[in-house]
Batch of 2 targets.
Target 1
Amino acid sequence: MYGDCIFKEYYTMVRQIFIGPMIHTDENEELIIKESSAIFIEDGKIIDVMENPKTDQQKIDDFHADKINNLSFGQFMIPGFIDCHTHAVQFPNLGLGYDKYLLDWLETYTYPLEKKYIDIKFAKQVFEAVVKRTIESGTTTACYFASLYTEASGILVEQAAELGQRAFIGKINMNAPRNDGYYESTENSIKDTMAFIESIERTGNPLVKPIITPRFALSCNMELMQELAKIAKEKNLHIQSHISENEDEIKTVKQVFKEQLSYTAVYEAAGLLTSKTILAHGVHLEDSELALLEKRGTAIIHCPSSNTYLQSGLCDVRRLKANNIKVGLGTDVSGGASYSMLDEMRSVLHVSNCLSLTKRDYVPFNYKEAFHMATLGGAKALSIEDKVGNLVPGKEFDTLIIDLNTKSSLLDNFKDYTLEEKLQRFIYSGDDRNIVSVYVKGRKVK
Ligand code: GUN
Ligand code: ZN
């Protein structure tokens, strides 16, 4: 059982140098482009970044690296993608069931699939593919809704640890009674959540963390949400849930929690709004809710692909940001039909362009802002920007090596492109075939 094994670090290369071009974003959401750089890494951590390494060979020699990785001509480095919201159990439904709105979609397609994870063999088969596929498409950090079932959730922990992905993994909490039995008692929900957290803690793996996961306000009563908030506080854990995704959902939340003035007020009353809370969607939030989220430092995870497929709405992310709300990006599989963060960035741009067609003076996002949202923006939403999000000294080396010239690439290079143009082409038109290597904390995982 994964809880009983001690996490073993796999770093065969204690000191490494990566030499080649790199692009990332900074605090101001600006692109930083280095045509030629050397990144010095020790135990998975970036300890120095030097520009124009050809001018100081001595510094490279003095580092006594176990391995020097010289990027091939045309390749460049970018930070790994951070998928702040996805459902591992829903991968078998990718590409299915987009003919219903959220609440019917959950009943018709999603809950019946999720009940199957009582079968551990099925869980193993799916979760192995989930972690492998997401790593291959460049997701170095993933925030997963795992399963209602503790044992199945543990399988996802095992897979992330084994394959080397950085992950927040939540056992889903749902105690609202349902006719099909797909829920748990309050007592079991709390007991199993504690057991799940402790089993992850026992692994000692610094990359895989538990996250408190009340599914949404319609799946949990106030007592359970309050108990979960207490656990998060005692153990200083992240919290994830859904908020204000669909208009019928919001109406129902207000009917169920009559004493609360808004959806956000329900989570506030439960004590779930913290600076380590991330809430997916936030499409229809009222001004007063934005103020409350800002006050608590709670982040919204933008899931544009899911929001359009399930016809939940077009989220005005400019408005969230204007209210100082941190925004990360999530694929929300299988509300979203792709686990690729490249696809999700394109959805950011599509939704934002659509909004600009209907709203006067709305400035749509550009690809650089989408790139920021998929990297440093996500890290900030998760409050892990001290560890990942861009390639600066002090952070861990979570990096993708991009190549638009691979044999399998769908992109032809009929002319020379600048480094910035290469990034732009990758974001608009590339795919996982252009991601030749993936590193998490210095360990090569693709
Ligand atoms: N709200 C509650 N559960 C879910 C889910 O699984 N997916 C989405 N998109 N919204 C939800
Ligand atoms: Zn979701």
Note: The longest strand covers residues 31-42.
Target 2
Amino acid sequence: MTSTPILSVIIPSYNEEESIPTTTNRLSELIKKWKEEGKISGSSFIMYVDDGSDDKTWELIEKYYKESQGEVRGIKFSRNYGNQRAILAGLCESEKQGADCIITIDADLQQDENKIIDFVEKYKTGAQIVCGIRNDRNTDSFLKKMTAIGFYKLMNILGVNIKINHSDYRLVSSEVVRVLNKFRETNLFLRGMFNELGFKKDYIYFDVKPRNKGKSKYTPFSLFTLALNGITSFSLVPLRMVTFIGFLMSLVSFLIGISAIIDKYITKNFVPGWTTIVVAIGFVSGIQILCLGIIAEYLGQLFQEVKDRPRYIIEKQLS
Ligand code: UDP
Ligand code: MG
């Protein structure tokens, strides 16, 4: 382990023309300082991953690439692939370009960028994965806060032990990236993947600032998709639940059947139970559709994985 590792800071960016100038200046300043202090190698760099933006994001990345003589680098996706794949591409390309450790940060610098060096220090003491944990969720709306907490709780119940409030602010070693690259799945949920990999982990606590420019690039729908991917790619519990519910329902209907027979032939006091039938049919078909839905989720995952398509297409690269 060298005491001056080559650090790569990767920034997934989707329509971030408003944030990039400030973010580049701020990060370049910090990196310059840490290089001078001998904390990181002089070959350390910043890598933007333009996730198919349709504003001036790529033009700006080109401009900073020229001005910085390659300290600011970039990858341009052929279309929007989503933040998880942008991060993955940044990790793999940085590893290829010789980085020893790689950290991800959002283009809006909501995560405290001064802490980057603390992540590096943890890396130097032997941690292979250093996860950033948010101190609180005060900058999030009430709804986002609640759904996020609910999601982490649910994941833990389903047997995926991701730390609560761990965002994608994370440093990993090049060794971890090489291993990660062997996992070929298309539906990525990086938090779960890094949990799955093992390796020595450490944690850094940080504060979240309000987004400096522009608005969130995540829609409620894309967050919902991410959450579903997280569940279906790491937990079989929902499938098992389907079996369990099916078993329970059969047992209940068997008992109802027996009581109906008793009513009809022995006690002979049966009333034409129209309401009961309607309620029962509604309830059972509801459960059936729900179970079908859960199975379909996994089937959909399988369908996508089986095609084994490339996870992203890099259209241009500056390095
Ligand atoms: N992002 C991306 N592709 C997308 C959506 C978002 O690369 O399809 C990037 C975005 O540019 C930002 C990071 O992911 O750097 C986090 O997004 P954002 O700040 O909008 O999310 P929030 O902070 O609201 O969760
Ligand atoms: Mg943000």
Note: The longest strand covers residues 166-173.
